[in-house]
Write a structure and sequence with these properties.
- This protein has a domain of 58 residues.
- Strands 3-4-5-6-25 form a 5-stranded antiparallel sheet, with no helix packed on it. Strands 11, 12, 13, 14 and 15 form a 5-stranded antiparallel sheet that branches. It has a 4-stranded antiparallel sheet with strand order 7-8-9-10.
- 32% of the residues are buried.
- Helices cover 15% and strands 40% of the residues.
- It has 391 residues and is mostly beta strands.
- The protein starts with a helix and ends with a helix.
- It has 8 helices and 25 strands.
- Pfam families: F-box, FBA_1.
- It comes from Forsythia ovata.
- This is F-box/kelch-repeat protein.
């Protein structure tokens, strides 16, 4: 720990020999955890590091190692969620230098669902099927969280009880956003949808004029993908003849407008619950499950925005106790959820699988590249695990 004298000397050295813009260029390359400590050097450093301008620059400039994965799952033994960071190596070993404390306790009868992850921030909601499900933003690296206010479109105020969430980052305005699409009861295709946006910098919901594409519905538990500034879901669209077709529905976080992307016939006419969006090697992908033949086909849009570039990448056999595809590793392996709650690494070429020694309840796994940032430093509250979890 630096003494007050040494802190003053360090600050004076930086002031005398480094212009402020050079100092900022140095600090934006330093990991968030170190910067949190650097705020104690002086008031001026605290003001600089805590400023929206610096946090924005750091988010855009700081390069995180891409060889680490964050893995979450629900542990029945511990009766709570467990988050851990793993090296993206052969055996997916735990990074012992990073400890993540889950700050939401275990008051739910089940686990929180992760809507998405972006720039080191996770968006979570509970799936307890209450009329108003709480929504949180959480930065595990610096232990900050934000609970979103209650949206305008609730069951009590609007007579609506189904909604879809999307989470991402508005690069133009340097802001995190959550989009919420509320559906009416009954025939979802015939009832106008209400769309609300939550902006972190504003701290409240607002209704937007951007209309969901006509007769287009996203199912509540469809996964989202945030790519190229757009949230993507697989969706169902009803035609004039009442026929249903699948497509990709996107929402631009910057322009706040919806758009549609067509799918190849093999996907457009597939059973709607057998499709989900994903990211494969930084490209938009769709997972097509075949429950009858117990397999999953990975389709990839080779050139973003060009539907004709959709192509089959490979198949994953699910007849060995696997339930679903969770993500993809740098070595080309596929991460799978096993029926017995085991995390499996599967090599499509060799058709060989390896149990990674990580356990959780089936369907509770979530995997994403681990990223550190200063996001939520200003808006967020301290987010530490309850004492009973630390014991």
């Amino acid at each position: 720990m630096l003494s007050s004298k040494h802190k003053s000397q360090s600050e004076e050295l930086f002031r005398n020999y480094l212009p402020e813009d050079v100092l900022i260029e140095i600090l934006v390359r330093i990991p968030p955890k170190s910067l949190i400590k650097f705020r104690c050097v002086s008031k001026s450093w605290n003001l600089l590091i805590s400023s929206p301008y610096f946090i924005s620059m750091h988010t855009q400039s700081f390069t995180n190692p891409s060889n680490r994965l964050m893995i979450s799952r629900y542990s029945k033994i511990h009766n709570r969620e467990i988050y851990s960071v793993h090296l993206n190596n052969e055996d997916c070993s735990v990074d012992e230098n990073i400890k993540i404390e889950f700050p939401f306790g275990h008051s739910l009868p089940w686990y929180y669902r992760i809507i998405g992850s972006c720039n080191g921030v996770l968006c979570l909601t509970s799936d307890t099927f209450q009329r108003t499900n709480p929504i949180f933003l959480w930065n595990p690296a610096i232990r900050r969280k934000v609970e979103l206010p209650v949206p305008q479109a609730t069951f009590r105020s609007m007579g609506r009880d189904e909604f879809v969430l999307g989470f991402g980052f508005d690069v133009k305005n340097n802001d995190f956003k959550v989009v919420r699409i509320a559906y009416g009861r009954g025939d979802q295709y015939q009832v106008p949808h209400k769309v609300e946006i939550y902006e972190l910098s504003v701290g409240k919901w607002r209704e937007i004029d951007g209309q969901v594409p006509l007769n287009c519905v996203v199912e509540v538990f469809y996964t989202q993908v945030f790519l190229n500034g757009i949230v993507h879901w697989t969706a169902i669209k009803r035609s004039r003849r009442s026929l249903l077709k699948n497509l990709i529905m996107g929402f631009s976080m910057t322009n706040e407008v919806f758009e549609e992307m067509t799918l190849p016939d093999a996907l457009a006419n597939a059973w709607k619950f057998n499709l989900n969006t994903a990211v494969y090697e930084e490209s938009l992908a769709v997972l097509q499950y075949d429950r009858q033949h117990k397999s999953c086909c990975i389709w990839v849009m080779k050139e973003y925005g060009f539907p004709e570039s959709w192509s089959k990448q490979f198949y994953v056999r699910l007849n060995q106790g696997f339930t679903m595809v969770l993500g993809f590793r740098k070595n080309g392996d596929v991460l799978l959820d096993g029926r017995e709650g085991k995390l499996i690494s599967y090599n499509p070429g060799a058709a060989a699988s390896v149990h990674l020694g990580i356990h959780g309840m089936p369907f509770s796994f979530y995997i994403h590249t681990y990223v550190e940032s200063l996001a939520l430093l200003i808006e967020g509250k301290q987010a530490h695990a309850p004492k009973q979890q630390l014991q």
